[in-house]
Amino acid sequence: MSPRGIVLDAGALIHVESDPRGRVYGACRDVLDAGTPALLPTVVLAQVWRASPQQAPVSVLRRMYRSVPFTEDVAEAVGRLLAAAGTSDVVDAAVVIAAVSHNCAVLTSDPGDLGKLADAVGVQVPLIVV
């Protein structure tokens, strides 16, 4: 795992829901045990959260991670990034902005879209595919 810490995308949360003690959970534990940043953008949680009993593993994980709020400043940065990349996924852009802002890798199931956004930022954002 990255010593830089990680930001979770929606695919990582969905993976935890379907495999509570699987690869994503292990990666999250490794990051937390190393004392590096473990971040969950609130907009990612909004995209995935449905408060169902099947989401108990997601609920556990979200308490382990530090929330990254979707503030007005983040919204503006997301808009600029979407314009630069020529894409429209607000949540993916917020994940990349969080990773760049906090010098983290991204735990993702969508390396293509996130890679395009990272390229548009002009900063190397490590993508850890689940």
Question: How would you explain this protein's 3D organization?
Answer:
This protein is an alpha/beta fold. The protein has a single domain, classed as Rossmann fold, CATH 3.40.50. Helices cover 58% and strands 13% of the residues. The chain contains seven helices and five strands, in the order E-H-H-E-H-H-E-H-H-E-H-E. The protein has helices at 10-18, 23-34, 42-48, 56-64, 72-85, 90-102, 111-121, and strands spanning 6-8, 38-41, 66-68, 105-108, 127-129. Strands 3-2-1-4-5 form a five-stranded parallel beta sheet, with helices on both faces. Helix 5 (72-85) packs across helix 6. The two termini are 12 Å apart. The mean pLDDT is 94.
Describe the global form.
globular
The tally of strands reads: 5
What is the correct CATH architecture? 3-Layer(aba) Sandwich
- Please describe the biggest sheet, giving its number of strands, its sense, and whether it closes into a barrel: 5 strands, parallel
Low-confidence runs of at least 5 consecutive residues:
none
Radius of gyration: 14 Å
Report how far apart the termini are: 12 Å
CATH class: Alpha Beta
- Spatially, the strands of the biggest sheet line up as 3-2-1-4-5
What is the number of helices? 7
Number of domains: 1
How would you classify the helix and strand content by structural class? alpha/beta
CATH superfamily: 5'-nuclease
CATH fold field value = Rossmann fold
